[in-house]
Amino acid sequence: MKKYLITLFMFCHSAFLFAFSQQALVTLLQRPNNTQGEFTQQRYLQGLIKPITSSGQFVLVKNRGLLWQTEKPFSNQLRVTSTGISQWDGHRWVVSQKLGQSEQIQLFLGLLSGDTQALAKQFDLTLQGSEKKWQLTLTPSSLLMKQIFTQIIIDGENNVKRIELQEKQGDRTLISFENQRVNQPISSFAQTALQ
Fold first, then answer.
1. CB 124 within 8 A of CB 73
2. CA–CA separation, 126 vs 123, rounded Å?
3. For position 12, what pLDDT does the model report?
4. Whether residue 1 has pLDDT greater than 50
5. How far is CA 40 from CA 76, 129, 175, in A?
6. Helices and strands: H and E segment counts in the chain
7. Residue 39, Cβ neighbours under 10 Å: how many?
8. Helix (H, G, I), strand (E, B) or coil at 162
């Protein structure tokens, strides 16, 4: 009898795990036309006791990109779109010309929007949980990402709540998202930036 109960438990548990698929996650995260809220980013560097912390606001607009507005410790506005990363200089958007930028863009937009197809090109993906509480673990599979990360862990519910980037040399970045609002009017600055 005990053997049958264990087998039944294992079957029910595995059915629960597979009920929430990567496709279901994509559907969940790509449902809103826009998501905006606050972020806190903590960068843990080897040799430093306290993390380097920054915070601000973000706006993610479906199929258009991300506006990342750091407020503390200093003001900085970044725009991430499929065409590149730009920084606001107070008058116009200045495009960054850094090498390897296309990989960074695809990674960042993929992490926030749940684009598992783009992420699967460079990582092995493991999804656990349900629609109400899930975790996606990314283990690098491409040579480039293996040189940078050991793994990336994304936690979420209806949207992404937390991203942890674990780097090869031992540094770690933790990004938390709070006070998220979906499908609400966005600022005129964000509208112009993400046209």
1. no
2. 10
3. 38
4. no
5. 14, 24, 6
6. 6, 11
7. 20
8. strand
Token code pair at residue 163: 């991203």
CA distance 99 to 93: 18
Whether residue 160 is predicted with pLDDT greater than 60 in this model: the reply is yes
Given a cut of 80, is residue 14 above it in pLDDT? no
- CA distances (Å), 101 to each of 58, 81, 86, 93, 171, in order? 20, 11, 11, 16, 20
In what side-by-side order are the strands of the sheet with 134-140?
93-95, 84-88, 76-81, 65-72, 52-61, 34-44, 172-182, 160-167, 149-156, 134-140, 123-129
What's the start-to-end Cα distance of the chain, in Å?
Answer: 63
CB-based contact 136:154 (threshold 8 Å): yes
**Are residues 174 and 41 in contact, defined by beta-carbon separation less than 8 angstroms?**
yes
pLDDT for 64 beyond 70: yes
Tokens 């599979």, residue located: 141
pTM of the model: 0.81
